[in-house]
Amino acid sequence: MPESSPWADIAVPGADFNVRQVPGETAVPCFWGRDTTGACLFIAELQGDHTDQFRKNVVTVHGIDVDLRGGEKGHQRLVLTLDKQVDRDLFEGLCRTLASSLERAADSASSLAVALTHIRRWKTFLSGRIQHLSAEEVRGLFAELSFLLELIERQPSSAVAVEAWFGPQKSHQDFTFGNTAVEIKSLSGTERSTVRISSEDQLESLNDSLFLRIYRLSSLSDATGSQSLNEIITAVQSRLVEDEAVEAFERKLVAQGYSPLPGYDEPRFVVTDVHSYRVVDGFPRLVRSQLPNGIDRVAYDIRLETIAPYECDNGEVIGGN
Predict the structure, then answer these.
(1) What does the pLDDT look like over 233-257, one tens digit per residue?
(2) Is the residue at 3 inside a domain?
(3) Whole-structure pTM over 0.85, yes or no?
């Protein structure tokens, strides 16, 4: 079940703040809070004086006040204040992912840098590019991220793996690495045994090897190992080692239209089946190079039983070159 709002059980104070500490191993103490107006706050306690750093890098975000305030002697507070309660779900998503990002910081200075960078990225989310993904888009993104996790384990660096992910860029195939291209599809647990190919370019590639990987996802919230879209994204982030991988991954999530909203805590999926197919001569497909003149924007379904002869071991997709 989705968690209740972290501000729900914090009383409005008569003065200053009422706070409750955010659980987790962050480099600096973080708190959910409310002020005397009842506004929702997120507070990070910093050691030292970071006024110059804050002034050089401060970010303005419509609907959120970002301020550096004096605290106890030798301390400062980074305080985020939500202007309108109607935007609380967005603010909660920002704060939860910020707290997660602060787990990778080393000290107060780096925590402030991480926080301001994170807020700057969220400004992109909140500047008109945010959207709610459809159920089909959620499944599709979950399947692509499932493959990305596998790719991270097999590539020489996480940056190389993230660079190989082209799905958010609306490329012909979702992944391209080495001389291999992979198109990812998802099916719901109860879906019929066909897969939708959405263009005449998806199953045609200039690469030496082209694969179709199909994930069957069952919505089983209470099952062991089930994950929501938010959780699998967190799982990917935890495996990104290089700074450039973190930056590239977040840019691609923005391009995909994803924002870490609490609404993506459900549904929770279990991958119940994975099948891979080698797309070679004879594979049933429609491709641009063979379409009659004047035919364009083709979409079609492939019955899975017809491509059974082309099935290959899942390991061949990444490690078979």
Answers:
(1) 989 988 888 878 887 887 888 788 8
(2) no
(3) no
